[in-house]
Amino acid sequence: MMVAIETLRTPWLETYAPGSVHDALIADDGSVRPRWLPLLDQLGQLGRDTLVQRADEVQHLLHENGVTYNLPNDEAGSRRQWWLDPLPLVIAPQEWQQLEQGLRQRSRLMAALLKDIYGPRRMLAEGVLPADALYANSAFLLPCDQLLAEEDPGLLLHGVDLTRDAQGHWRVLADRVQSPSGVGFALENRIAMARALPDLYRRAPLKRLAGFLSAQHHSLSSLSRLNFDHPTIALLAPGPGHDSHFEHAYLANYLNLALVEGSDLVVRDSRVWIRTLGGLQPVDVLLRHIGDAWSDPLELRGDSLIGVPGLLEAIRAGGVGVANPPGVGALEHPLIGAHLPALCKRLLGETLQIEGMERHWCGQPEGLAWAMAGFETLSFQRLDGEPGPVSPADMNEEAASRLRQAIVAQPDRYVAQQPLVAATAPFFSRDCAELSPLPFNVRCFTQAVFDTDYRFSGYDVMPGGVAWHGAPGSAMRSSQCVKDVWVTAEEPQPHVSRLRRSRQPLVVTRDGADLPSRVADSLFWVGRYGERLEGRSRLLREALYRLLEQGQEGQADDTLEDLLHLLELDTSSPGELPVERFVMHRDRLMGLFHETQDGSLPMMVSRMVNNCRAVRDHLGDDAWRVFNQLRQEAVRLPNAGIDQGRRSVETVITQLAAFFGLCNETMPHHFGWRFMDIGRFLERALATLTLLRLALIDSRHAGEALWDVVLTTTDNATAYRRRYRSELHPAAILDLLLFDEANPRSVGYMFKRLERQIERLPQPSNTPYRSDEARLLIKARSALHLADLELLAKLEDDEDAKQALADLLDALTVPLEALSLAIEHSHFSHVEAPRQLIPMQTP
Prior knowledge:
Residues 515-828 form the DUF403 domain. By secondary structure, this protein is an alpha+beta fold. It is built from 28 helices and 22 strands.
C-alpha cells in the first residue's frame, strides 16, 4: 500500500524533493514506497538530533574497529575512514527475488565463459565472441590455458556493481571477478548499524549476512583436492599497504584463514607450503586477493614481488585450489561485456536477465555506425588499458574531432556505450540533518555453493551488499558516503551465529607452531617499536615538565640538557638569555611531535602501525580499538601546543600500557606473543642500560636531580621511596634497576624473562647444543651475576667503581645488541623482502 507524503507525518520528507528520475523512496505518484514506511516511522520517533548522534556513533564504531580504505596516493594521508550513512538502502522481498535470480544467472554465465576461453574456445570458433576479446585483452593470460579441472566450478566469488536507470530498472555496471572486495566491509557496516541503531535494526525483518560468510568456508574447503575434512586455507593478500587490507585481515579472522603474503609461501613438489616457525606446512586452498598477473612471477609478471613462484604449476598438478583462479580477470574486459547478451543465449540458452549499459564494439561495422550516429551523446572506452571512458560532450570541439578521427582510424580499439541517467536514493546529510535524493551504486556478491559431498550445486547471493553515492560506475573508494543494503524478508529471520559448527571431528592444537615467520617478525617489531615509543614518551614528558617549570625567566636546568641528549636532540648552547634558552628548548622538543623528524613520536607510531597492520588478524578486537585510539592521538600531535602536547604524551603512555596489557590478557601465550614480548623487553633492557650509563657515568650534571629523572622515567619512584624513603643513593638505584629480579623494570628481571621466552622458541635445527640466542643471554646474565656488588656500592666516590660499572654495562649491552641479530637470523632471515635485480618485460 502506497502512502502519500501529505498523510505521512514525518519531518524527514518535508525537504525531500526527488527529480524526474526513479527514486528508491518516493514513487512516481508522490507516495512513499511501502518498504520504507517502517523505517521512516522509526526515524520519526528518533528525531533529527538523535539520528545525528547515532550517525556519529556509527562512525565511532567503525573508527574503533579500524574500518578504513587505504589510499596510497592521497597526499593528506594514506588511509580514509568510511562515512557510513545511518539510513540504509532498502530492497523489498519481491524485488530482491528478481535481482537474486539475475545475479545467479550472471555468475553461471561468467563461470561457463571462463571455462570456455581457457578451454575449447568455442565462442571464438563460432564467432559469438570476436578474437580481439581475448588476443587484444591484456588480462587474458595464455599460461592459464587448460588450468581448470573439469570438476572445478571456475568462478567461486563474483562481485557485481549495479545501479538503477532513470526508469528504475537494475543495470549492471561492472563485474568484479579477480578479487572482489566489499564482503568484509558489508558485514562490518551491518554490525555497526546494529549496535548504533539497535531498535531500527531489531524491528526490521532483515535477511542476515552471516549465513553467506559461514557457507563460504565450506565452499573454499570444497576446492581442496587432497584434504576435504580439515584443509588448510589461506588468504593471499598483497600486504598492509593495499587499499583493502582491512578487509583482508577481517575476512581471514572471520573465516579462520591464515593471512599470508607471497613471501610466506613456497612451491615444492607441486604443492604450496607456508613458511612457519615449525617448518613448512602445506596449503590446500588459497583465497586469492592479488591481481591475476601478479600471482606467479615464474610464468606471469616476472617483476611481481607479491606472487608465489610456481603457483600455476601447483594448480595444474592439483596441489592447491585457488579462488578465483588466475586469468579470471579477462572476463572484466569491456569487449566481453558488450557481447554478454549473445554469449548468454549461446552458453546458457537464456536471455540475459539484468542488462548492462548498451555497448557496441566499434570493430564491427554495425557497431561503428551506431557509435558515429550518436557520437555526441555516447562515451567511449579504449581497449588498450587507457583510463576512461571519455565523452565528447565533455570535450571542446577540437578534442572531440580528434577522438572521432582516432575511432575511425582504429575502430577495433574502442567500445561505445550509452551513458546511464541514474535513479536516486535517500542519503542522510549530517551537516543539515536532512535526506537528499542522490545517485548511487550497489555492489552485490555471489559465491559457488557445494553440497555435503563437496559437489558444486550452483550459486548463492549475499542478501545485502555495499551501496555508495556516486555517478554510475564511480569507484567505491572515491565515494564520500557508503550505505548498508537491507534486504527485507516477509517474516523475522532466525539468528545466524558467526561461528560455524564443525562437520568433522576437530583436531585440537595449542602450540602455535603454524605461525608464519613474517608474522613473528612483525610481532617482534611491534614489541620493540611499542617499547621504544613508551620510553621516548616518558623522557619527553619529563623534559616538557621541566621546561614548563623552568619558564621563560627561570635559570637553566642542567637535567634538561641530559634529557635532550637521551632524546637524541641537539644540546648545543641555545643562548645566554633565559627566554632564548626556553624558545630553543621548546622548539627542539616540539619537533618530536612531527613525523618528518627522525625519532619523533608520530614516526614511532607510524612504524608500529605498519607492523600492527601486518598482524591485524593476531590482535584482539579490544587491543585493536585501543591501538586505533593511540594512532589518532599521534595524528593530533603535530597541531598540539606545549601544554596539549604534554597531555597527549600522557595519553600515549596510558594507551600503550592498555594495548600491551590487553595483548597479554587476550593473545594465546604461544610463539607470536613470545616474539612480541621478547621485542618489548629487549628494547626496554637496552633503554634502561643507556639511562643508567648517562645518570651514573657519562653525565656532567650527575646528582639527585638526574637520579630522580631516572626513577620517574622508569616508573620506579614510588617503589624506591617505599624501600628507601626519601634518601637518594646511586648504589640503591643501581640495585633497584639493575640487579633486583623481582622488579619488572630492572635489567635482571628482563634478562630472566627473555631467557624464559627464548627457551620456549622453536629450534631451527635438531642440534643438542644451545642456540646463539640462549648463549648470548647466558653470557649477559653471567656478567650480571658475577658483578662485584661491594665495589659498585662505592660508586659515588670511587673511580674504580665507576670504571667497573662502565665495564659491566658494556658487558650487558653488547650481548643484547647481538641478541636481536641472532633472533632475526634464526627465525626471520628467510622472509626478507624480495628485490628486483634487473628490469623485466611485462605482458
